[in-house]
Give the backbone structure.
Amino acid sequence: MTSDPLRAQFPALVSRPGHPAPVYLDSACMSLVPRPVLRAMEEYYTEYPGCAGRSLHRFAQEVGRRYEESRAAFARFLGRGDPNGVVFVRNATEALNLVAQGLDWKSGERVLISDREHNSNLIVWQRLAAERGVRIEVLELPDDGAFDGDALDSALAKGVRLVSLFHTSNLDGRTLPVREITERAHYRGARVLFDGCQAVPHERVDLDRIGADYYALSAHKMLGPTGFGVLAGTPETLAELRPLLVGGETVEWSTLTEHRLRPPPHRFEAGLQNYAGAIGAHAAIDFLEHVGFDEVGRRQRAVNDRISSALSGEKRVHPIGPTDPARRPSLFAFTVDGVDPHDVAIFLDEGYRVMVRSGMHCVHSFYARRGIPGNVRASFYLYNDRSDADALVRGVTELLDRVPGAPLSGTSAGTVVSSPRPGRGPPRAVGSTGAAARSAPPRRRAARGRAASAAGSG
Ligand SMILES: Cc1ncc(COP(=O)(O)O)c(C=O)c1O
């Protein structure tokens, strides 16, 4: 049993007979869900399981009220004055697609992205480039986490219609200066879209202060349920978008030949909605606000500092991104010379119950350019503590002992090397060092070959 009352709120962290508590270091992929969120969703299905905006009975009235309360809560949480600027979607990917595909692009217009965007903020632009002649400009970001405002200005000077960047990176944990970016972009007449997936769970985001035109997030990275996300805009910027889907709930009226769309945000929420998701996500932001972002930051920084300093002396461990953990507070991404990232992940899980993510983290473009098969990523959240940090460090240290090898050059992700198969697609995350790692299984349990199932995953 955990003695930390906050950790005790997360059923997935509680040990059960035969199932000792896991060491969960994969919150950048998906965070754990606390009891109040689970309770709120169960209450919806047990106490008022209706659909909003259709029937007039009490279940329907109650869910309608709670659904709009969730919208108002998100507007407050994100510092957006008008709840009508909050659109409920399935996830950040849908929010990004809604902006990208919803704007009326003309051939030759430019979008500016960075060189390390999640596929959700890349593929949609590649499609628009192919189908509508949109031009993709790429802002190169220095590996050390610095930001060059002049480089942004030079890119903007070409005439950019939309700047679409991550707020915090899922690859190396750096945070971009979003207010400065918005000011520079607006000065040049560009609109700004931020992918806020990795920022909103960890810091107070005040959209009216930042001035962003569009902001995307997923609830499952911030203690909420899967399948629920938000596109936050303003009623004006949202009105510039064509809905991705139309149908029930999106119209004020229709005849056999015509219809009139409702104003934003409802015109974007087609069909029966994820009410349990909206209600659960509202409970998640209440939980976060109750704990407070100062405490969230304090807890995850303590874990990150401990890991970063313990592994800093290991010559075969190469952190990715800023060296200072204060500049990547929610994650520690690294490569291990001589060991495939998937093998590191399997070794840690099998031997230490440490769950990390390995591979390319849906940023394949970054690895393809460098010709490396990916890396390991440990990511932190408010429920992690020093015992989690120590388990990771013990696991990595044992792995280094068991799979000997001199430091290799060129395996650090900071080093750009040519692709092994130029022009023939990205390098594959094969278990090249799998044999070595698996022939040296962790002390507690023999490792099974699992890398194949994760190879190539994002
Ligand atoms: C930075 C970033 N952007 C976008 C996404 C996509 O989020 P979702 O799959 O919830 O749409 C993720 C998810 O890992 C992410 O980390």
Observations:
- The chain has two domains: 7-30+292-454, 37-289.
- The pocket of pyridoxal-5'-phosphate is lined by residues 91-93, 118, 120, 166, 170, 195, 197-198, 218, 362 (CB under 6 Å).
- Confidence is low (pLDDT under 50) at residues 408-449, 451-458.
